[in-house]
Design a protein that fits this description.
- It holds the Pfam family Glyoxalase.
- The structure is a single chain.
- The chain is an alpha+beta fold.
- Helix content is 19%, strand content 34%.
- It is built from two helices and nine strands.
- The radius of gyration is 15 Å and the shape is globular.
- The two termini are 27 Å apart.
């Protein structure tokens, strides 16, 4: 249903460093950048995704009010583990170590971190392993 989602961040350089470090763990990368010049000085941001399609954007505009929860679907539990390790190494804060969350369903395997702006970012695998 969703095509893409975007977050305003307090410090674009800091957030780019964080997501540039974390997204490869789940098979994604920065696939598009929009500069201030391209947007007539109104926006700059980075779009992350797979296969050249940006689905997750971070951009200028100041920190989003309140915190958001975003879950990235991944293909394996190993990707969940790699996401969690990469996020902690990049300065993310633990918000739930990798593991099963059977209260959602028996194969719900996820990890949660808080990004530099305090957003709850999750990687989740729904496959039995």
């Amino acid at each position: 249903m969703l095509d893409h989602i975007g977050l305003s961040v307090a410090d674009l350089k800091r957030s780019r460093h964080f997501y540039d470090s974390v997204m490869p763990a789940i098979g994604a990368s920065c696939v598009m950048v929009v500069t201030l010049e391209e947007s007539n000085g109104t926006y700059e941001g980075a779009g992350y995704g797979r296969n050249g399609k940006p689905s997750f954007w971070i951009g200028s505009g100041g920190q989003t009010k309140g915190s958001l929860h975003i879950a990235f679907a991944v293909h394996s539990r190993a990707e969940v583990d790699a996401f969690y390790a990469a996020a902690l190494a990049a300065g993310g804060r633990d918000n739930g170590a990798p593991g099963l969350r059977p209260h959602y369903h028996p194969d719900y395997y996820a990890a949660f971190i808080l990004d530099p702006d305090g957003h709850n970012i999750e990687a989740v695998c729904h496959e039995a392993e």
